[in-house]
Amino acid sequence: MEDTILTIRGLKKTYGGPSYALKGVDISFKRGEFVVIIGPSGAGKSTLVRCINRMVDPSEGEIIFDGIHMENLKGKALRQRRADIGMIFQHYNLVGRVNVIKNILYGRLGKMHAAASLLGLFKREDRLEAFELIKKVGLDAEMYKRADSLSGGQMQRVGICRAILQHPTLLLADEPIASLDPASAGIVMGEIRAAADEKKLTCIVNLHQVEYAKRYADRIIGIKDGLVVFDGTKADLTTEILSHIYQGKEDQMGDTSGQANNNPAETGELLYA
What we know:
The chain is α/β, with parallel strands linked by helices. 33% of the residues lie in helices and 22% in strands. The strands form 2 sheets. A 6-stranded mixed β-sheet has the order 6-7-8-3-9-10, with helices on both faces. Helix 5 packs antiparallel against helix 6 (152-165).
């Protein structure tokens, strides 16, 4: 579908000092798009994603998600809208002492009644869906292990399952492969893309690694010094444009050949077939 699910207008963010992390971002996202945001450290990528779900409060501007102005929401209204926005974190944000399946089930907490969420009274259909998700990502043998006993790649796959069980309409991922080795990074990116396609989600992913942006994104956005300086496809992303985005920080681009792991069995593309 071509209709817009998210519109950002004049978005600015300062953390109290004279400088701005975001300097006036205007951008929109269509339903079902898989968008990767690239740029060097400190460009404003994480601030942008965290403003969308109000983990960070914007200083100025509008964030209109599915017709609702996120920047105006507080309390219960904000919690209700956040329940429709899944989030995958760089450092996983799992409860280490809790087992894998329960960490996944925590994705339902935002859509449960308060009493049921406090008592952990998950519905049978939620449990069944969690079991199916963990099987799809190949971790069914680990479902009753503590989350902190898993490898980084495994923990991130649990984080993906948790976000998908939330039944979001928008999925955000903030540097989901920054802490992973190349093999695990390919698996995680493949699973995020496959899950987004299967569930027809709009997905916005922050990445440093340009090669993964080229491989997985429908659309790539480049951010530099708090401003959008590129918005297009991988075919439009020339060497000259990359040099402009990463000026002086080219070491952060990774391998720009676009030759990220192309084996579907290793990238996760088969897991949601």
